């Protein structure tokens, strides 16, 4: 075997052009596939970086964020009371930990430092979470159950990434005090490198707090002592030999019994739904896999596409190896005539193929690294995600396996030719023709390349047009000269009673910036990826049946001039003004879908509703807006209502009172509309906010267009990568067609000379060669067009506003493929047409 490998390397060294072409072609194919597999492994297959992840089980098998109320039907989020109930009554679990399903934005400043406070992401976890995962501290210690008790000293754990990037791995950080949202916390430890929590997500937590810190971290909207609000994911580590199927029914009974108890605060009319409530245990080694659910369809599609590119690269390599085997046929025949066993010749041919494939696989790692970085940049342009581009051991094993497989696959045809080498050919000196067998094989490979290329080009065209349709639809607002920034007054210590005065001051400061046209603020802005929802009840109408969700609506609290600032049209009535205060009747504005769904007469103006049956006459509708997309670009428009930021409703019910408080303290989105381009706008805005309060942190600042564009990261990644793979496939197919045509011309040099000597002109020769080349492409199109239609249906769930079999895309991609084929074939065809007859007849 070593002799065969050394011989193969010597042969490749003698033909550097062939070797470089073969390695680069294969490296592109394997590199593209390995880059996609890197992400597939990290997002879909990889377990959490914890001890024995196979022992972890999650309570719940679907994904939710961030706070639920009422019945869930299939439960996956739980209140703190429910977590304690499961933890204390299921001894089959060695440990059971709770994790906040959402995240918090916090203001952090090192005590005694002159640097201003910075905004970070934090998460609340139970004190035994790190112990449940088997995680040890990199420095200091991690949270323990004793830290998660009311009255315990306020402590926090910092992530290794934050410690490294923000504090230069300063050892003095451990044990130091940091001011978090105005309260002093002691950093007791640093998590190990690579740990990101219980779920893979963009922008993982920088700090982990014990759940007992929730009232301070969450501020007004505290949920720790609310058994009727579900906000925790639960993951437990089972004892060896435990049968999960026996635990699940018991926990389901425990859930229903808890819901029947007074502590659950389930309304009497909703208790009929309790027997229908279920929960399921799911493997927890991968954690809460929200990112997986978001990206799995796109990654599967890219895996198939990259596999097609790899197949096209393999076809090219097979053609190269066939040509090489054909040119060495005389040598092979001589070796066979001298007594070389057929098995020995086949083994040598396969060894050369595998060696070439392994070299291509090694080079492909560089392409895989660069490709992975490119994909991460496209998918998470402004976010950090804990996925590393450097190939891991499973990825290296995948690349090695693919290399070996392709080496065997594209080495079969040359080995077959070698096995059938005829010793008599050596005696005849036959080297002019390779016979029809190899020619048919090579042409078949070109046909396959053409078919695959058409499929990829059409897929790229469909996805690109789909992306364009999504981006240019009417979202119900205007992005021109509009900006969005986010702040959090709570992090600077503001209380609910101070909010009205604070926002008036902020409005006046920002409105005073030269070029500013209007300023407003809201709970969240269009296409921010946020959504607040509640049930609505209409004056004079009975409530809907429990569990029907027929009265659900999304809602936003917003300031005066909000709709004008974001460019949303008022269709009826009016929007909020500064005259809408707590001294006037509470008013609301609704969208067109809200009016259409809840009012049969088609007129919402003057009607009354509330967020509770007992207060169904609270708000009077004074305006109707056009439908505006607040969620994702392809989401169905939801019924929405808007409440004034300066109006407060006094409720006797403490839950409704909390609703008022939290919705006034979370007005974190600030919308700006300028009369045109304003130089240095961001710096002026930050300066104005610092003037108001130096402890206020600007979380982010971007144009409205950038916020909208961020909704298309995944679709843009898929469209761009599919286009890149389609272009790569087209180039590889063109190279393959060029190679086969050039080789065919070389083989037929004597024939062409005879034709020209008998009177054939250059045009006839040109047509002859082009016809042979285009016949392969046309057959490929005949196979590729039906395959393209089927492929379009396979990616239908990724398309928006375009049919999977769009004829325009099919025609354009067909013409592109034919154009590339013409360019690839015309060069060897012209060379054939320029052949001198006497030179051709002398060719041996």
Automatic annotation (TrEMBL):
Q: Which UniProt keywords apply?
A: Cell membrane, Membrane, Transmembrane, Transmembrane helix
Q: Which InterPro entries match?
A: ABC3_permease_C, ADOP, MacB_PCD, Macrolide_Exporter_MacB
Pfam family of the protein (one): FtsX
Q: How does it sit in the membrane?
A: Multi-pass membrane protein
Q: Where is the signal peptide?
A: none
Q: Where in the cell is it found?
A: Cell membrane
Main location as per UniProt: membrane
Q: What GO terms are given for molecular function?
A: transmembrane transporter activity
Q: Is Disulfide bond there in the keyword field?
A: no
For this UniProt entry, which segments traverse the membrane? Answer: 21-44, 301-323, 354-376, 396-419, 440-463, 724-745, 765-789, 809-829
**For the MacB-like periplasmic core domain, which residue ranges apply?**
19-251, 453-634
| Domain ABC3 transporter permease C-terminal stretches | 305-423, 724-837
Kindly list the GO CC terms recorded for this protein: plasma membrane
Per the similarity annotation, which family is this?
Belongs to the ABC-4 integral membrane protein family.
Tell me the protein's name. ABC transporter permease
Q: Which organism is it from?
A: Alloacidobacterium dinghuense
| Source species taxonomy | Bacteria, Pseudomonadati, Acidobacteriota, Terriglobia, Terriglobales
